[in-house]
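Hello Y.,

Per our agreement to keep a running log of every chain we model this quarter, I'm adding this entry. I've kept the format consistent with earlier entries: sequence first, then predicted structure.
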Amino acid sequence: MKIYFYLGVGLIITLIVGLFGYGVYLNNRGENEITEWMANHHLPLSCIKVKERELMPIVELDLVNLYSGNMTDVVALENGRIVQEFVEKNAHVSEGTALFQVVDEEIPLKIRQADSDIIEAQAQLVKAQNSYNRYRQLMDYNAISMEKFDEAEALYKAAQARLSNYEAQRDQLLARQSRQMIRAPIDGEVLNIYHKAGSYVKAGTAVALVGDFSSLSFSATMNDTFTKKLYIGREFKLTIGGNEGIHKPYGANFSPGNQGDEQVFNVKVEKITPALGETAAMRQVIWQIDNSVGLLEPGAYSKITLHSSLPHKCLAVPVGAFVNENRNQVAVVDADGRLAIRYVETGVTDGKYIEIRRGLTAGDIVITSDTEGIDEGTQVEIVLEDN
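Predicted structure for the entry above:
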């Protein structure tokens, strides 16, 4: 019995070893066949030749804050009660336009008192002047003492100073009275009214908000690879995505001719810091938007795109040719017809093509097909696209 048992165990072990060896053989054979197949099989991939193109560069900004340099509170310059309103919300006003009238009832009374003081001071001045002139004539004949003359002269000068003081007080009261008419400090639209007729306000209190949103600005930090192509006054087109253009927190009026969400705004470079003549890797660019259509107001806007109006000639490849998110690697076909990965330095883009500054030369073949799962060094078949 033991002999049969040992024979059975031996057969089982022999069978297991044989199966294991056969499996290793099949695995090696399969890998060799796959390697040989990959080396000899030509994968058809869409490709394009690198060449010079004229791009109309675009710049995409995730978020910008628009602001107006012409927006200010209208403040009362004198204490008083608002007795009249001359404008309504959203009315367009020019600098100096009367908006409200404030009345301080004490000012007219003080003006009348100042008028009375001036009349009295004028009478005192005439009297002092006559005495001074008389004593001066007597001095010519040595008919009075110098002491008497000096006294008359002092009274005359004091009367002059008293009259000047009362006149200055009256002028000050008249100026205060004129400031009771509250006027627009700038051209613009009345965006908000804080106080109505009947309200009592103190000097310095904001009574309304006036703003001119026909021109808005924003700033953006940009790499010098882009800013060195800019100059003060260069014009671009600007579009805003995400239905952002119709949000009106201030309630300013829309202007005729606006295109709503389809509006394309004219924008130009207003300032570059540091200046282009100075060495810098990053610069702050201030842009000015023509908002004469009245769609935009100060605030945060996302999905901003700047479209250049001037062509830029450069080596370029399609956006889809990049094999990584950072857009610094492309798949190329080398001289042996095999797949290779090339590192590149990129520049501006027009949304379809991207400028290649370094890493490729004119005539290089770049793969535009999806190369995921294909190893570097694989023999590929070139299918050139019409570009």
